Amino acid sequence: MVVKLYGQVTAACPQRVLLCFLEKEIEFEIVHVDLDTLEQKKPEHLLRQPFGQVPAIEDGDFKLFESRAIARYYATKYADQGTNLLGKSLEHRAIVDQWADVETHYFNVLAFPIVLNLVIKPRLGEECDVVLVEETKVKLEVVLDIYENRLASNRFLAGDEFTMADLTHMPAMGHLMGTDVNRMVKARVNMNRWWEDITARPAWKKLMKMAGFGLA
Amino acid sequence: MVLKVYGPHFASPKRALVTLIEKGVAFETVPVDLMKGEHKQPAYLALQPFGTVPAVVDGDYKIFESRAVMRYVAEKYRSQGPDLLGKTVEERGQVEQWLDVEATTFHPPLLNLTLHIMFASVMGFPSDEKLIKESEEKLSAVLDVYEAHLSKSKYLAGDFVSLADLAHLPFTDYLVGPIGKAYMIKDRKHVSAWWNDISSRPAWKETLEKYSFPA
């Protein structure tokens, strides 16, 4: 029996899990939950994810939600298969966790309102909060300087190997790079290098193809 | 050399402190004077580049982000004190799920209430009444989900106390105390029982006793 992922392949949080599956060479099935029609708020989905969000997984009798928790679970369960995403020692794993948590608390809190206003709201025919976007971009510049500094002395966020810390940033970064925020990344030498490096990975290219972003 | 936790008087570092005390691990604390801007000085930024607390130094090893510290301590000292990560990979998955719910869904509206009710005047920004109202509504909807879940589960990740429960302690302590919204917890039967249980643990009582903000 293959793990089922409930979500939409173009949405960032389900993509986080899909990317983990692809890096770990885990077979999966996607069950589409249509965000454009708010299917995630309907009773059937609320049984899988009581906060009305995607993704959720079902793996036989085992169920889980929160994309980062799902990714950590599969990275742990399949530690010996595919890419090692969790570091080589306890100390290294904690640094992976540290930068993965930075994504939640410093990066996503800024990336999400930008993507919501510049990408999602227009699609739903809603008005964009221009003032909020501009204020958020100013805060994002400060945070990206910290990342730039980190990546100046580290090839990847947690050291010299690609880990969960990098992977967890990719879906939201992917959406941001489709907006004028891509200037901010391209203007920073090390962030740009890091982004080009991690998006050259086969798993990312497969994900982009699945999501219909048409890259080779 | 003993592990050091920076900024013990503030809420986020208490996630690390309560975990260390639960696991019976020796540690020292180093105060950080946020009012004087010590967290923005180069010496502190070398430990935590985002200029927030906590930072932890364990010999040559440095780590920040309170929940990453919790995971590190719980894993490193797995064989002593309560097992806060669950016994199986699946139980750990549930712990991670609720730890992430705390971080992504419970914490943000509660942080807004904390900043705008407790710290606005001290930090010198106007308290946003609209944001307070919206945040209380969001947090209330989240607590409704917790109420349903805790009616079927003693603790968040199952029948064992875990990092997921402990992560809620510091800011919920603010909610029922200085924020003045204890009713949000007390009016929900199962959330209330869960709160009474986890907040009366000796490790949490010791954390508050030793590291509460000086009056």
UniProtKB/TrEMBL annotation, chain A:
Residues 89-216 form the GST C-terminal domain. GO terms for cellular component: cytosol. InterPro entries: Glutathione-S-Trfase_C-like, Glutathione-S-Trfase_C_sf, Glutathione_S-Trfase, Glutathione_S-Trfase_N, GST_C, GST_Phi_C, Thioredoxin-like_sf. It catalyses: RX + glutathione = an S-substituted glutathione + a halide anion + H(+). It is an enzyme of class 2 (transferase). Residues 1-82 form the GST N-terminal domain. Belongs to the GST superfamily. Phi family. This is glutathione transferase. The lineage of its organism: Eukaryota, Viridiplantae, Streptophyta, Embryophyta, Tracheophyta.
Automatic annotation (TrEMBL), chain B:
It comes from the Eukaryota. One of its GO terms (biological process) is toxin catabolic process. Its EC number is 2.5.1.18. PROSITE patterns: GST_CTER, GST_NTER. Keywords: Cytoplasm, Detoxification, Transferase. Residues 88-215 form the GST C-terminal domain. Pfam families: GST_C (PF00043), GST_N (PF02798). Its main location: cytoplasm. Residues 1-81 form the GST N-terminal domain. GO terms for molecular function: glutathione binding; glutathione transferase activity. It catalyses: RX + glutathione = an S-substituted glutathione + a halide anion + H(+). GO terms for cellular component: cytosol. It is found in: Cytoplasm, Cytosol. InterPro entries: Glutathione-S-Trfase_C-like, Glutathione-S-Trfase_C_sf, Glutathione_S-Trfase, Glutathione_S-Trfase_N, GST_C, GST_Phi_C, Thioredoxin-like_sf. CDD domains: GST_C_Phi, GST_N_Phi. PANTHER family: GLUTATHIONE S-TRANSFERASE F9 (PTHR43900:SF45), GLUTATHIONE S-TRANSFERASE RHO (PTHR43900). Belongs to the GST superfamily. Phi family. This is glutathione transferase. It comes from Brassica carinata (Ethiopian mustard).
